[in-house]
Amino acid sequence: MKSSFGKQFSNLRKEKKLTQERIADQLGVSSQAVSKWENDLSYPDIELLPEIAELLGTSIDELLGTKKDTEIMIVPEQERKHIDELILKIIINSNDGDKVRVNIPVALLKIGIEIGMNPQVTSNHDSLKNINFSEILTMIEKGVIGKLVEIESSDGDCVEIFVE
Amino acid sequence: MKILINTENKSRKIIFPTFLITTKFAMKKLLSETNGIVTRTKVKEFRKAVRKARNTFPNLEIIHVEEADGTTVSIYL
Question: What is the structure's pLDDT at B15?
């Protein structure tokens, strides 16, 4: 969930152990103004953003909450989807222009691995040879989702593996 | 299971019952090539997982291939 500017500002200020008064002094505004920013009652002048970011040791993107989430994340156990609801996506863009998209329900991948089927053998694609799908499955079972693998081989092939 | 193949000249649609893959074909292939790792019970579990996945993800395109010459192949679960 995207954090509000005020919340983000407040968290970063506290992390830096700075008081509202100190920030206000540095920026040449009143401490009441800083308080209003933190409560999302008003916003700082746009020209102050670079200075605020520098003071808080962050980027404007992070300050505004527009920084992209990390591509990989660990979902807490109580918030995880059941394995039956997850899909493993393999995207292969070959140097010669071929594009392959594979969508495997994770439940099928799991049972496939249990019975000895191996996606890298099945696909016969060089870039997949060193990918251990059992390890990927273990990661998924521990709540890891997002982009798990990104490989760019020397011959220009690109492989990405996601879990959604 | 449904396979769609589109080439420059023609399009083909192949539809066949999934059980053809998940029973006779798979059993023969799996039992012969996995040195006994695969059992009939495991194959039954696999078939069950396929049915469940089809219910959870109806008409899921499990494989999509676009070749540089424009040929596309789609395989649906």
Answer: 75
- Is residue A133 within 8 A of residue A114, CB to CB? The reply is no
Query: Cβ of B15 under 8 Å from any chain A Cβ?
Result: no
**Is the minimum CB–CB distance between A91 and chain B shorter than 8 Å?**
no
B57 chain-A contacts, CB cut-off 8 A: 87, 105
Structure confidence at residue B10 as a pLDDT band (50, 70, 90):
confident
Would you call B46 an interface residue with chain A, using a CB distance cutoff of 8 Å? yes
With contact defined as beta carbons under 8 Å apart, do A127 and B75 qualify?
Answer: no
pLDDT given at position A30: 92
| CB atoms inside a 10 Å sphere around CB A96 | 10
* Tokens representing residue B71 in the block: 């040929």
- How many helices (H) does chain B have, and how many strands (E)? 3, 4
Task: Yes or no: say if A5 and A66 are a contact pair by the CB < 8 Å rule.
Answer: no
| CA gap A141, A160 in Å, rounded | 19
d(CA A30, CA A56): 17
Asked if A97 and B68 come within 8 Å (Cβ–Cβ), the reply is: yes
Query: Could you tell me if A75 lies within 8 Å of chain B, comparing CB atoms?
Result: no
pLDDT band, residue B40 (cuts 50/70/90): confident
Residues of chain A with pLDDT under 70: 1-3, 66-70, 116-127
User: Structure pTM?
Assistant: 0.61
Which residues of chain B neighbour A100 with C-beta distances below 8 Å? Answer: 63-66
